[in-house]
Amino acid sequence: MTTPTKQLLPGDADPLWGPVLTSLTTCLCATLTAAGRPACACCLVWGAGPPSHDWCDCDCGDGSGQAWVRLVRLDPIVDYGAASGGRCGAWRMRAVIEAGISRCVAVAGPDGSAPECDQREADALSALADARLLRQAIACCDALADLRVEPDTMRPTGPQGGCAGAIMQITVEA
Length: 174
Hints:
CATH architecture: 2-Layer Sandwich
CATH superfamily: Phage minor tail protein U
Mean pLDDT: 87
Distance between the termini: 38 Å
Radius of gyration: 19 Å
Number of strands: 5
Strand order of the largest sheet: 1-2-3-5-4
CATH class: Alpha Beta
Number of domains: 1
Shape: elongated
Strand content: 25-35%
Low-confidence stretches: none
Number of helices: 3
Structural class: alpha+beta
CATH topology: Alpha-Beta Plaits
Helix content: 25-40%
Protein backbone atom coordinates (compact mmCIF):
# COMPACT_ATOMS: atom_id res chain seq x y z
CA MET A 1 0.00 0.00 0.00
CA THR A 2 1.31 3.42 -0.86
CA THR A 3 0.86 6.55 1.18
CA PRO A 4 -0.65 9.40 -0.82
CA THR A 5 1.39 12.56 -1.04
CA LYS A 6 0.13 15.79 0.46
CA GLN A 7 -2.33 17.45 -1.93
CA LEU A 8 -0.80 20.65 -3.32
CA LEU A 9 -2.57 23.49 -5.04
CA PRO A 10 -1.31 24.09 -8.61
CA GLY A 11 0.39 27.37 -7.67
CA ASP A 12 2.08 25.76 -4.68
CA ALA A 13 3.52 23.00 -6.86
CA ASP A 14 4.92 25.57 -9.33
CA PRO A 15 3.58 29.13 -9.50
CA LEU A 16 3.77 29.26 -13.31
CA TRP A 17 3.48 25.73 -14.69
CA GLY A 18 1.07 24.28 -12.11
CA PRO A 19 -1.80 26.62 -13.11
CA VAL A 20 -0.97 26.29 -16.84
CA LEU A 21 -1.07 22.48 -16.69
CA THR A 22 -4.25 22.27 -14.60
CA SER A 23 -6.00 24.89 -16.75
CA LEU A 24 -5.06 23.07 -19.95
CA THR A 25 -6.43 19.85 -18.44
CA THR A 26 -9.68 21.66 -17.62
CA CYS A 27 -9.84 23.01 -21.20
CA LEU A 28 -9.36 19.53 -22.66
CA CYS A 29 -11.98 17.92 -20.41
CA ALA A 30 -14.51 20.73 -21.04
CA THR A 31 -13.96 20.63 -24.83
CA LEU A 32 -14.57 16.88 -24.97
CA THR A 33 -17.66 17.13 -22.77
CA ALA A 34 -19.12 20.07 -24.73
CA ALA A 35 -18.73 18.07 -27.94
CA GLY A 36 -20.60 15.12 -26.42
CA ARG A 37 -17.42 13.01 -26.30
CA PRO A 38 -16.40 12.98 -22.62
CA ALA A 39 -13.66 10.67 -21.38
CA CYS A 40 -14.01 8.31 -18.41
CA ALA A 41 -10.82 9.81 -16.99
CA CYS A 42 -9.48 13.23 -17.90
CA CYS A 43 -6.43 13.97 -15.78
CA LEU A 44 -3.18 15.79 -15.36
CA VAL A 45 -0.66 12.94 -15.18
CA TRP A 46 3.04 12.55 -14.47
CA GLY A 47 5.40 10.17 -16.20
CA ALA A 48 8.13 9.67 -18.75
CA GLY A 49 5.51 8.71 -21.34
CA PRO A 50 1.78 8.83 -21.94
CA PRO A 51 -0.44 6.79 -19.64
CA SER A 52 -0.80 3.16 -20.62
CA HIS A 53 -3.48 2.48 -23.21
CA ASP A 54 -4.43 -0.49 -21.05
CA TRP A 55 -6.21 1.95 -18.70
CA CYS A 56 -8.53 3.12 -21.46
CA ASP A 57 -12.04 2.42 -20.10
CA CYS A 58 -14.43 1.53 -22.92
CA ASP A 59 -17.65 2.66 -21.27
CA CYS A 60 -18.41 4.76 -18.22
CA GLY A 61 -21.96 5.90 -18.80
CA ASP A 62 -21.83 8.93 -21.07
CA GLY A 63 -18.12 8.67 -21.89
CA SER A 64 -15.33 6.39 -22.94
CA GLY A 65 -11.56 6.31 -22.99
CA GLN A 66 -9.08 8.57 -21.28
CA ALA A 67 -7.69 12.03 -21.89
CA TRP A 68 -4.63 13.55 -20.29
CA VAL A 69 -2.19 16.40 -20.08
CA ARG A 70 1.40 15.85 -18.97
CA LEU A 71 4.61 17.80 -18.71
CA VAL A 72 7.15 16.23 -21.06
CA ARG A 73 10.09 18.44 -20.03
CA LEU A 74 11.16 21.88 -18.84
CA ASP A 75 14.08 23.54 -20.61
CA PRO A 76 15.79 26.55 -19.00
CA ILE A 77 16.56 29.52 -21.22
CA VAL A 78 19.26 31.84 -19.91
CA ASP A 79 19.11 35.44 -21.13
CA TYR A 80 21.65 37.50 -19.20
CA GLY A 81 21.04 40.56 -21.37
CA ALA A 82 17.40 40.85 -20.30
CA ALA A 83 17.97 40.14 -16.61
CA SER A 84 17.42 42.88 -14.11
CA GLY A 85 17.62 40.57 -11.14
CA GLY A 86 21.12 39.21 -11.80
CA ARG A 87 21.76 35.58 -12.55
CA CYS A 88 18.62 34.38 -10.71
CA GLY A 89 16.38 36.67 -12.77
CA ALA A 90 17.94 35.57 -16.06
CA TRP A 91 16.17 32.22 -16.35
CA ARG A 92 13.01 31.74 -18.31
CA MET A 93 11.53 28.33 -18.95
CA ARG A 94 10.28 26.57 -22.02
CA ALA A 95 7.93 23.67 -21.37
CA VAL A 96 7.02 20.84 -23.68
CA ILE A 97 3.48 19.79 -22.79
CA GLU A 98 1.56 16.85 -24.17
CA ALA A 99 -2.19 16.38 -24.41
CA GLY A 100 -3.76 13.16 -25.57
CA ILE A 101 -6.92 11.14 -25.94
CA SER A 102 -7.25 7.39 -26.24
CA ARG A 103 -10.42 5.35 -26.75
CA CYS A 104 -11.36 1.71 -27.27
CA VAL A 105 -11.07 0.32 -30.78
CA ALA A 106 -12.23 -2.90 -32.41
CA VAL A 107 -9.96 -5.86 -31.77
CA ALA A 108 -9.61 -9.34 -33.24
CA GLY A 109 -12.56 -11.64 -32.73
CA PRO A 110 -12.42 -14.78 -30.60
CA ASP A 111 -11.36 -16.75 -33.67
CA GLY A 112 -8.48 -14.33 -34.34
CA SER A 113 -10.22 -12.66 -37.27
CA ALA A 114 -9.48 -9.02 -37.92
CA PRO A 115 -12.18 -6.40 -37.30
CA GLU A 116 -14.37 -5.61 -40.30
CA CYS A 117 -13.58 -2.55 -42.43
CA ASP A 118 -16.67 -0.70 -41.22
CA GLN A 119 -15.49 -1.13 -37.59
CA ARG A 120 -12.00 0.11 -38.50
CA GLU A 121 -13.45 3.08 -40.36
CA ALA A 122 -15.66 4.00 -37.39
CA ASP A 123 -12.59 3.85 -35.12
CA ALA A 124 -10.56 5.99 -37.54
CA LEU A 125 -13.29 8.64 -37.80
CA SER A 126 -13.70 8.67 -34.01
CA ALA A 127 -9.96 9.21 -33.55
CA LEU A 128 -10.03 11.97 -36.18
CA ALA A 129 -12.84 13.70 -34.28
CA ASP A 130 -10.80 13.44 -31.07
CA ALA A 131 -7.73 14.87 -32.83
CA ARG A 132 -9.82 17.87 -33.93
CA LEU A 133 -11.11 18.38 -30.37
CA LEU A 134 -7.59 18.05 -29.01
CA ARG A 135 -6.38 20.83 -31.32
CA GLN A 136 -9.41 22.95 -30.43
CA ALA A 137 -8.85 22.53 -26.69
CA ILE A 138 -5.24 23.66 -26.99
CA ALA A 139 -5.87 26.52 -29.43
CA CYS A 140 -8.81 27.95 -27.46
CA CYS A 141 -7.49 27.53 -23.90
CA ASP A 142 -7.38 30.93 -22.16
CA ALA A 143 -4.49 29.78 -19.94
CA LEU A 144 -2.25 29.80 -23.03
CA ALA A 145 -3.51 33.12 -24.46
CA ASP A 146 -0.66 35.29 -23.15
CA LEU A 147 2.09 32.71 -23.60
CA ARG A 148 4.13 31.89 -26.67
CA VAL A 149 2.82 28.54 -27.90
CA GLU A 150 4.33 26.50 -30.72
CA PRO A 151 2.24 23.46 -31.66
CA ASP A 152 3.96 20.31 -32.81
CA THR A 153 2.62 17.51 -34.98
CA MET A 154 -0.48 15.61 -33.91
CA ARG A 155 0.36 11.90 -33.92
CA PRO A 156 -1.88 8.84 -33.84
CA THR A 157 -1.16 6.33 -31.08
CA GLY A 158 -1.88 2.65 -30.68
CA PRO A 159 -3.63 0.43 -31.10
CA GLN A 160 -2.39 -1.08 -27.90
CA GLY A 161 -4.48 -3.00 -25.38
CA GLY A 162 -7.61 -2.41 -27.47
CA CYS A 163 -7.17 1.38 -27.42
CA ALA A 164 -5.89 3.99 -29.86
CA GLY A 165 -5.97 7.74 -30.06
CA ALA A 166 -4.12 10.97 -30.69
CA ILE A 167 -1.32 12.89 -28.99
CA MET A 168 -0.23 16.47 -29.56
CA GLN A 169 2.69 18.27 -27.99
CA ILE A 170 3.14 21.99 -27.67
CA THR A 171 6.13 24.07 -26.63
CA VAL A 172 5.24 26.93 -24.31
CA GLU A 173 7.67 29.68 -23.36
CA ALA A 174 7.22 31.87 -20.30
